[in-house]
Amino acid sequence: MNQKLYDFLGVPAPPLIDIAAVTSACGSSTVAGRYTCTRKLDEDISVGSKVVGIGMHGGVLLATRRATKARCVVKSLDKRNLSRKALKYVKNEVEMYLALDHPHIAQLEQVYETSAQVHLVMEYLEGGELFDRIASRKGFSEVEAARLARQVLLAIAYLHASGIMHGDVKPENFLFEDRESQHMKLIDFGMSRKWDGESKMTDSCGTLLYASPVVLLKSFTTQADIWSAGVLVYALLCGCHPWKGSTNEQVTEQIKQGKTFFYASRWNPLSADAKDFIQSLLTLDPDQRPTASSALKHSWLQLAAPERLLQASLAGQVSSSLGRFAATEPATRACWTLVATCLPKARTNELRNAFLAFDHDDDGRIGLNDFKQALRSISSEDAAPDALFGHLDADSDGRISYREFLAAASYDDSEISEIALRSAFDRFDVRGVGALSSDDFAEVLGEQLYGREVRSLLLDVLGPHNAAKGTVTLEHFRDAVTKSSSVVEIDTQSSAGLSECKMNQATISTSSSSSSIASDIGSESPSTDSLPDLCKEPVKEAGRGGTRTPQTRSFAGLIASFAANCTTTESFASMPIMH
User: Fold this and answer.
1) Residue 535 pLDDT more than 80?
2) How many domains does the chain have?
């Protein structure tokens, strides 16, 4: 039924987002605290008037979190003004995006849904697009390009392992966390779709210059993303596209036939490994093209491969820290799943490379074999990996997600900011009444977590002396979370204090956005006049990073040490291939 008809009848429309289905598909720890249809956006977010991007259904506005003063971006969609088809695309995009959880994918941090609107609170990545860096530098060294290419393929490998095709892989859709960072995140899931692993997809998607031949022929699989990655890597190294033509029709015909044009002055100086890597990704037959997982094993990418071994001096300390988390009460671990998402970004940034290093098969999740390999590399003692793994795997799905890893890896920090605690408490407080019920716990965490009925965790948090009260106050929540930690105040008026409290948010962008974000956030977009053969696409909606916070000698610090050891033509410049 159309939203306007519900309004006419005076009855509330059912939520557009099926959060139960999302939770069932990806686990409660991934979705926890990120969707609400009861709490209001303006209770948590102050939305400004500055437009930082233009999407298919409206502007993307710069906003500020009331509790932490951290910047984020908000995209608001009026369900009453969207067609049934548009609503279907929005539902698909939001539900798919909520399920994603990876260091190289920008996070959709929260979704607020009312009877009339859906508000998406997203990460503000202020470092700008990969495209802008290509245009300004006109090509990277092979080592630099390999590092960036590896990030591109890690994001794609995770999506494909999740049965998702991105559908619009290109430099404009990879944004840097900040202007000094080399860490990229993938955005824009408006053209993404689930793939059943067998049938061919037929709806055109993507952008012409990066589109796979089979996408233009409307019969493709997730391997189309690999072709797009090949064009992107060529642009990284050569500063241009591998096509030669003056019209859309000429370029389309070249792509359909797979007739790449490698500019000799830029192509010839490349190493044999680099050439082989690009040519493998641009293999015309999708079945002969490497998967993202196999491409990550190519010899050229070993220039950027991480070191997966801890220093010998750290042996045993990881097992000890994991043991502490494993011995913690399920109620404390459940509360910490949200506290960890509210920790300073600087702290989580220090842990993400460790997650990637633990992930030996590069599928974006840590399996038991990955976990055992990591423990063997840091300890010669029997670390009981199966038991430890079980305590980290909150959803009991046989895999440790990025969020689950961060929750365990950050738990031993001896100091937790009051702001992080309050922010986590507010995520649980879906009704905004200042106290948590068993229904709140179940709505945020699902029915099961760490092998326990979530509703029963309420009594564990309250303790026997307060069980009769039936609700959890902020004090009860603080006690449950900080049994082995101390809470510290952070000055929310100082820039240092603010930067230490930034929470992860995320971005969505569409193929129809049309204004540069780079100029909106304080720097001019590089001119592309000197690079006519590199297509400049419309800028998408963007995201953000953080600053360093003091570390204790904890599992977080230990893992941070681990991470430290890891080592065309203007006429068709803006031509998306629509749904």
Assistant:
1) no
2) 1
* CATH number of the domain bearing residue 99: 3.30.200.20
CB neighbour list of residue 15: distance below 8 Å, 6 or more residues apart: 37, 113
Q: Give per-residue burial for 303-321: e unless 16+ CB within 10 Å, then b.
A: bbebebebeeebeebbbeb
Within 10 angstroms of residue 560's Cβ, the number of other Cβ atoms is 18
Residue 7 lies in a domain: yes
273-307 per-position pLDDT tens digit = 999 999 999 999 999 999 999 999 999 998 876 65
What global pTM score does this model have? 0.79
Give the Cα separation of 418 and 424 in Å (integer).
Answer: 10
CA 530 to chain centre: 33
Which ranges constitute the DSSP H helices of 217-367? 223-238, 248-257, 264-267, 272-281, 292-295, 317-327, 330-339, 345-358
What is the Cα–Cα distance from 94 to 120, expressed in whole angstroms?
Answer: 8
C-beta separation of 556 from 406 below 8 A: no
- Cα-atom radius of gyration of the chain, to the nearest Å? 24
Residue 138, in any domain of the structure: no
Burial class (CB in 10 A: 0-12, 13-18, 19+), 232: buried
Q: Is 168 one of the catalytic residues?
A: yes
In a domain, 442, yes or no: no
Domain enclosing residue 42, as ranges: 3-126+505-520
- Residue of 482, 492, 486, 432 lying closest to 461 (CA atoms): 482
387 contacts 301 by C-beta, under 8 angstroms: no
- Rounded Cα distance between 147 and 463, Å, is 50
pLDDT 10s digits, 15-61: 999 988 888 877 777 787 789 888 899 999 999 999 887 766 678 89
44, 101, 132, 168: which is the annotated catalytic residue? Answer: 168
- Rounded Cα distance between 538 and 525, Å, is 12
Is residue 512 situated within a structural domain? Answer: yes
